[in-house]
Design a protein that fits this description.
It is a single chain. The protein is of the alpha+beta class. Helix content is 33%, strand content 23%. It has a five-stranded mixed beta sheet. Strand 4, helix 3 and strand 5 form a beta-alpha-beta unit. It is globular. It starts with a strand and ends in a 19-residue tail after the last helix.
Length: 159
């Protein structure tokens, strides 16, 4: 199968939300219409997220279906290194299209995006038990030794 990757269009909310809801379901994370609209606003109003979609194309490069893969990226400042980088927050491929080349097309497009934006790297995280995805990531990137923490803000800190 052949793929093109491009920014998600402002008229593609339904196709995008189908993929994003699939992503949330994969990670067993609740989502809502309000949540979806907030992210859509970050993509199209604030432009704080770059949303790419992978769409099947024919031999002439004409689109022949709706998006089947998505990637959300954003800029990330690395003060210690003195560089700007990209951060891949979300990556999802419709289960029926896994292994079809769409993820390769998405990563090729991300590589071009990093070059265009002069990003030193693109970083992402994944679940430890996401073995299928990790097999792909191990071919594309270098696994780091960093351990990730999440701190939930509170009104007072333990002393």
């Amino acid at each position: 199968m052949l793929w093109t990757v491009r920014p998600v269009g402002p008229d593609e909310f339904d196709a995008w939300t189908r993929l994003y809801r699939g992503y949330a379901a994969f990670y067993e994370t609740p989502t809502s219409d309000e949540h979806q609209r907030q992210i859509w606003s970050w993509i199209h109003d604030d432009r704080s997220i770059i949303a790419l979609v992978g769409v099947p194309v024919d031999a002439d490069g004409d689109e022949i279906g709706e998006p089947q893969g998505l990637a959300h990226l954003r800029e990330w400042v690395r003060p210690l290194r003195g560089v700007i980088a990209g951060y891949l927050d979300d990556l999802f491929v419709d289960p029926e299209h896994r292994g079809s080349g769409v993820v390769d097309a998405l990563y090729d497009a991300m590589n071009r995006l990093a070059t265009e934006h002069d990003w030193a790297i693109i970083r992402w995280t994944t679940a430890d038990d996401n073995y299928r995805a990790r097999a792909v990531y191990d071919k594309l990137a270098t696994r780091t030794t960093w351990i990730t923490y999440d701190m939930v803000p509170t009104t007072s800190r333990p002393g």
